[in-house]
Amino acid sequence: xxxxxxxxxxxxxxxxxxxxxxxxxxxxxxxxxxxxxxxxxxxxxxxxxxxxxxxxxxxxxxxxxxxxxxxxxxxxxxxxxxxxxxxxxxxxxxxxxxxxxxxxxxxxxxxxxxxxxxx
Length: 119
Known about the structure:
Largest sheet: 3 strands, antiparallel
Strand order of the largest sheet: 1-3-2
Number of domains: 2
Radius of gyration: 18 Å
CATH topology of the largest domain: Arc Repressor Mutant, subunit A
Distance between the termini: 27 Å
CATH superfamily of the largest domain: Winged helix-like DNA-binding domain superfamily/Winged helix DNA-binding domain
Structural class: mainly alpha
Order of helices and strands: HEHHEEHH
CATH architecture of the largest domain: Orthogonal Bundle
CATH class of the largest domain: Mainly Alpha
Number of strands: 3
């Protein structure tokens, strides 16, 4: 279930994108789950179709969903592969900072700064 807050400073497309992405990451929407059509979800949420289309487009660019023409839009296995790549990168980073003698709290601050600088 998605909810849109009209009081939020976050644009509606971003609210849709963020909520769907979180549901995919949390495995509430598993690989292969068919998503509602753009028009259907827009109608359900009281949004313009272009708003939902933008959210879907950004999710597709991130590899979390895939559109299969007339068959519809589905949660992509590529998103799971992407998370596995991120976990592997995190393991390598942990090994690197440990070998450099960097404490976990400092290593997390380094990652946080990098994410904020590149987000």
